[in-house]
Structures are given as structure tokens and as C-alpha cells.
Amino acid sequence: MDNIIFLVLRRMRRPLLTLVAVYAVSVLGLVLIPGQDDQGRPWHMDFFHAFYFISFMSTTIGFGEIPYPFTDAQRAWVTLSIYMTVVAWLYGIGNILSLLQDQAFQQAIRERRFAQRIKRLRDPFYLLCGYGETGMELTRALTDRGQHVVVVDRDPLKVSTIRLQNLRDYVPVLHGDARRPVVLQEAGLQHPLCAGVVALTDDNEVNLKVAITAKLLHPHITVICRADSHDVEANMASFGTDHIIDPFDTFAKHLATALHAPGLYLLQRWLTSRPGSRLDDPVYPPTEGHWIVCGYGRFGKAVFDRLMKERMSITVVEEMPEKTGEPDQGVVQGRGTEAETLLEAGIPEAVGIVAGTDDDADNLSIVMTAKALNPRLFVIARQNQRENDPLFAQVRADMVMHPSTIVAEKIRVLLGTPMLYEFLGLAAYRDHDWACALVSRIAGLVNQRVPEIQEVTLEAASHCAIGEALEREEQVRLREILRDPADRERPLKCIVLLRVNRNNRRLLPGGDEVLELGDRLLLCGTARAFSRLKWNLCHGPTLAYVLTGEEPARGWIWRKWRELRA
Q: Left, alpha or beta for 321 (phi > 0: left; psi -120 to 50: alpha)?
């Protein structure tokens, strides 16, 4: 508000002073110039009547000469005053129109309205800095889950884009530089309902500044940052950033999982992908043989280091090794799009190739050239732009690394179902056969679509039916709440992946386990199953039916009827 007042006063100071001066001179002239009353006697207009006359005269309303007809001297002065006041008003109105079109003034007005809208929020929300491909995917995913988002971005085109998207919930968006603390404060950083800050810009330094600002101004808030530099990651971790996501290192870990336990990697992909999307097919990367890595940038180095830990034979192809550096065994200089370069790197005897440059056209060309020379290759391709989805689908790469998708999926899980990462961490200690068995169970629940993942905490406040039953010390077993309320002999299409009870964590708990208040359950299944599960947890008669097989009488008449029959 102070900025708006300052801009108005600065731009309108001269026009207002001009208007005041013209009015003062015009009024003073009418007061000093003598006139005549209706009897022909000399008469001087007082200041009140003079100001009143100049006011309606300068606005061209024209009520007439008051209180008596003017003399020629008065009319001459009024004629001069007309031109002076009209010019002053035009000057003032022109400055007002110019002020309304001023970019700084419009930005100040938008920030003021935005700040007022944020103050009126009554639900928890996440502050998202940066609305690129990652921010766009994450915003849609969170709003689809019913979570609220506030966006800050310095690109006016992206700010306009978000207003045109068909999102489930209204998303307030502020055009501003997230590096400025005042912008984050206006966006709600210190709002008591701000649940977390997510920094997703394409600049590591901006993400670092956002993380520092968030931790200093709101120390207990959850901060999640994207970073693709190990130095920046170390800096972020030094002051308590909660989650730091490097898409390249994350994919390298996924590749290691696929190499050692393909079933566990497939399980991870099915559970963390966007619900409703098509299920991924299993992949089996070769665990021995010769690999070619094209592009020794951040992604190429992450994959190279991971393959070296697996004791693979690797040849690196890099166009500018003097800029990116090179491994100890050297590089084959080139882009990898030429057959000669790939032949020099040993493409005929290779078992896998990584197209990992920062240019999608080069990566597509590398894949197509490599497949023409060796059709049996296992192909890993890096996709930088979401708009190239149809092109990468046509080359049929075995694994596609899209940085924005990796970051968005991980943050969506962290904010929406944090128990899922607890489950995946425990599942990492299980063997390949265990993962394959669970994958088969999930495939039997869903129709080639990624299942829904939900967390349920058994609380009396949110699940009144089961809360009342457990408070009465009734025994409610896990398999009983997973029965269909329409037919208790039919199980719901969902699986309990993890149960957390008093800090005890159990993977795939058995159906005979007795539930307690405070239990946290991680479930995987269909949306229809979760809708019916909610009836079991929240509706007393429905819970009684799935527990006993008898539906209690709900109305007074039916209760009396049953008493008479009994």
C-alpha cells in the first residue's frame, strides 16, 4: 500500500499543485474584481461564492452568474479562468491516465490485491517458486489432490499461462523475483497456514536464496529445493533444507535399482507415477557388457559414476571435453549423432547406450543412429522438453529421463503421501521375488492404470465410526474394514502396503492384525475402493454391517419392529 501511495503522490504532485494554483488565482481574481448588485451598487463576491462558481464553471457544468449578473471586468476574468482551469484539468487527467498505464503502478496494484487475497486464505497451502515444466506438473498434481498452491514467477508469460489452465482449484500467482524476501512475504511465506516452500526455478542460486529466506523467516516450515549441483546441495543442506532433489542423481539411483532388482524398480514406478496414467512395462537393463555414454554433462556424469560402481565397461562420447571435463580413460570426441563417432566408441559390441546431452534433437539423433548400427541396444534417453513427448515415444527408448517429471513426482509424493517413501525405503531391503509378487497383486487390482495411493490415520475426529468402535474397546481387524460395504463377502480392491503403529512399521500387514487408534495406514488401490473404505470408517451402520454381517435398524419404526419380532 505504501508503494501505491508513493507512486500516486510522485506522479500527481505537479498536476495537483498546478490545479490548486489555478483555482487559487481564479478565486482570488473574482474576490478582488468589483461587481454590482441588483440595485447597481458596488459589490465584492466573498470567497465561498467565488469558489463555488469556479468549481462548477471549471467542470463546464454552467449554472450561470451568481448571485448577481457579472460586470464586463468579471466576465473577462471568468473567460480567462475558463481556459486556465480546463487546461489544468486536462493536464491532471492526462497524468492520471498515464499513471494507470504505468507498469510499476499496475504491478503495485497487483501485488496489493495478491497480498490481500493471501491474507484471506483459510486452508493450508504450499508456496511454489518457479512455474516451468516441473512447476506446472506439480501444481496440477497438487490441485487434483485438493491441496492449495500459491505460485511466484518472474516471467510474465508464465504468470499469464497459469490463468488459462484448467486447474481444479484457483491458484493465486504473483509476478515477482523469488530472490527478494519481500516478494516471498507477500506470497504468504510467514502466513500461519503456509505448509511448505518449494523452489523449482532453473537457477540454482535462486533456489538457494529461496531456501535461505524461507528458513530464516519461517524456521519450522518444510522447504523442498531442486538442485543439480553438488556444491549448491551441500550449501542448502548446511542450514537445514528438508529435501534437496537432484534429478540426475535420482535417475542414477533408479538405474541402479533396475540393474539389481527390476521388480522393485517397476514397483517404484507404478506407485510414484501420476494416478490414472498407463502402467509402465518392466525393464531389464544389461548387468554386464560395454556401455556408451553420449554427453558428459551433469546427467552423463551421474550415470557414468553409477555404471562404474557396477563395474561396467564404459566409453564416453563428448563434443566439448575441455568444457565438461573427461574421465580418466578419456573420451571419444564428437556429438554421437554421427555413425563414425559411435563406431569409434564400439557400438557394434555395446549392450547399452545413454543419450544424455542437453539437446533433445541430438539425443533423438543419437538413439536413431545407434539403433541402426546395433538394434539390440538397451537405450536410455534424456528428454529435456515435455513438448517432445511424441518424438521420444516413436524412438521407443527403454528408459527416458525427463528431469521435470522426476522432480515433480518426488515432490508430489513428499507432499501428498510421505508414507510412500517410508514404504519404498523398507521395500529396498526385500528381494526381487517379493517385489514381483506385490507387482502381480497390484496388477490384479487395476486395469493397466497407475493405482491411487492414500494415507489413512485412524482418528476419532476424522473417522467417527471406527473411532467410536475402538474407544468401546471393540476388536476391529484389518481385513474387516477392507470389505465391500455393499457385499461384505467381497474384498475391496485395495492393499495395505504399510502400517505404522507406535513407531512400529510393518510391510504388507496381515488381515488378522487388530487396529488401534492412531494407526497410520498406507493403501494402494482404486478410487472406487477408497470411496467405499471411507464409508466403513465414517458411517456407524456400515461399519457394523461389515463387522457382523447384520445391518442395524436406523429408524425408530424399524427398531420397534425388530424389538417386537424379537
A: alpha
- Rounded Cα gap, residues 359 and 361, in angstroms: 6
What is the rounded CA–CA span in Å between residue 88 and residue 26?
Answer: 12
Q: Quick one: 48 exposed, middle or buried, by C-beta within 10 A (0-12, 13-18, 19+)?
A: exposed
At 558 the pLDDT is: 61
The C-alpha angle 283, 266, 139, rounded to 5 degrees, equals 115
For residues 343 and 350, the answer to whether their CB atoms sit within 8 Å is no
Query: Residue length, the chain?
Result: 566
Kindly compute the dihedral angle of the four CA atoms of residues 88, 93, 94, 96, in this order, to the nearest 10 degrees. 130
The domains located in the chain, with CATH, are: 2-100 (1.10.287), 122-245 (3.40.50.720), 289-397 (3.40.50.720), 422-548 (3.30.70.1450)
Euclidean distance between CA atoms 272 and 254, whole angstroms = 12
Cα 428 to Cα 268: distance, rounded to the nearest angstrom: 10
Burial class (CB in 10 A: 0-12, 13-18, 19+), 160: exposed
Identify which of 388, 418, 417, 416 has the alpha carbon closest to the alpha carbon of residue 402: 388
- Read off the pLDDT of residues 48-103 as tens digits, 9 standing for 90 and up: 999 999 998 888 777 788 888 899 999 999 999 999 999 999 999 999 898 888 88
Q: Could you tell me the CA-to-CA distances from 340 to 122, 332, 347, 494 in Å, in that order?
A: 63, 10, 10, 53
Is residue 382 within 8 Å of 355, Cβ to Cβ?
A: yes
Burial 252-287 (b: 16+ CB within 10 A, else e): bebbbbbbebbbbbbbbbbbbbebeeebeeebebee
Phi, psi dihedrals of residue 196, rounded to the nearest 5°: 180, 160
| C-alpha span between 214 and 239 (Å, rounded) | 11
